[in-house]
Amino acid sequence: MLNSFIADNEFKNLLLMGSRLPKIDAIRDTLKVIDISKLRMILMDTVRKARENKVFTNGTIDGFVVVAIDGTQTFNSDNKSCKKCLKASKKRKKKVRNFHSSVVLSTISDRARLVLDFEPYRTGINEANKDEGELTTAKRLLKRTTTDHKDLIDVVVYDVLECNSEWQNACDKATVDAIVRVKGNNINSLKEIKKQVNKSEPVVEWTNDASYEWVKVYEGFFRMQNVEKELRFVKFHMKDHEKIFAVNDCNNLHGHGTRYNL
Ligand SMILES: [Zn+2]
User: What is the DSSP string of 107-156?
Assistant: First the structure.
């Protein structure tokens, strides 16, 4: 993609008259040797400065510092690769795609988002030479961010993950509340609580907002195997001005039973 941007002269306004942009290979070679640990130090200093300046004193949402983790692919190529490339086989052409991926942790609020830290996936980490999965990378990221910035994060939202004990426990250890979406989940305790909540009355109802006609909120509490703490299951049933859909959430109860004003 970058190559076609260069060919189409997309960057011309950034350059001095008469100067030319380096070829894609030169750019790639430069990016390959950029030291990401320096980038991480810049982020760390930025967050420390923001804390000193009391940016997070009132939290980011309802008094709590809420962050989200998201995965992102940074480079990919069918023919260029380096030692740290992750590999994916392309079914049709029997080719291998080389790429780099990271998980990024940033604050969420209605103000500007601040990236707190990021973590690249590691490649070929076990005997089977398998690349690292997103959960392992995210756990390492959360552990480091909560160590580097003690008592900063209250809640972490991770949309991609299934609701599982490994992530709940990692969040518990970092003393951060976890919110994950419950989707396509086969865990028995979740199936049970879903059934139970479906039969219950809403605990809260919001009506007449610009973006919806009504939202009904249901909740239930349950225990999951291998998780010490009780978890809260929340179901939002929303009717917007056209259609109805349902979203299920599962969040860690740890110490803050009703903090989301549900
Ligand atoms: Zn690479």
Answer: E-SSS---EEEEEEPPSS-STT-PPPPHHHHHHHHHHHHHHHSTT---EE
> What is the enclosing helix (H) or strand (E) of 42?
helix 36-52
Cα 68 to averaged position of ligand 1 atoms, centre (Å): 26
Residues linked to residue 72 through DSSP beta bridges, in sequence order: 102
Number of alpha helices (DSSP H) and beta strands (DSSP E) in the chain: 6, 10
Task: Give the separation between CA 144 and CA 137, rounded to whole angstroms.
Answer: 11
Return the bridge partners of 87, or none: 98
CA of 84 to the centre of ligand 1 (A): 5
Q: What is the pTM of this model?
A: 0.75
How far is ligand 1, taken at its centre, from the CA of residue 34, in Å? 12
Give the model confidence (pLDDT) of 158-211 as tens digits: 876 667 888 999 999 999 999 988 876 778 888 899 999 999 999 999 998 888
d(CA 227, CA 215): 30
